[in-house]
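Internal tracking record. Fields below are filled automatically when a chain is submitted to the structure queue. Please do not edit lines marked as system-generated. If the sequence contains nonstandard residues, flag them in the REMARKS field before resubmitting.
Queue: standard
Priority: normal
Entity type: single polypeptide chain
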Amino acid sequence: MSLRLGYIAPDFTAQTTEGEISFHEYLGSNWGVLFSHPADFTPVCTTELGRTALLKDEFEKRNIKELAVSVDPIEKHLSWKNDINETQNCTVDFPIIADENKVVANAYDMIHPNASETFTVRSLFIIGPDKKVKLMITYPASTGRNFHEVLRVIDSLQLTANYSVATPAKS
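SYSTEM-GENERATED OUTPUT FOLLOWS
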């Protein structure tokens, strides 16, 4: 069964750059952004994790916890984290999940065989405090994410979670 909007986000336990986490426990009563990367040390991925770190205040004021995931091992993530901090002038202080066995990638359908049999595509999930999937976006590996759009969607989702309204398109 594939994952759909409104479904309970699959829970998992994983090793991360911040130690072992249980996903649902890590989120607590927060919203979450879970996003995947094809591989460590790739230029686009490096800019995306750097941008996420630089938007820390924006995520915090929206009660968001961020988690990145790729299928590379924890040792590589730790080295990459240092590289991101240096090259992007930031401090990555959110977990980067080491998903070598592809448990998270498979649960969230992040591996698309037409793109790669082994690496994740650029999937992004917004999870609500109720642990339900509120948004799914998938970009090809060649295209970096638009984090202003991610923040806009979070604002919309949080507003419409509390009020019976719809939000318009934004240019």
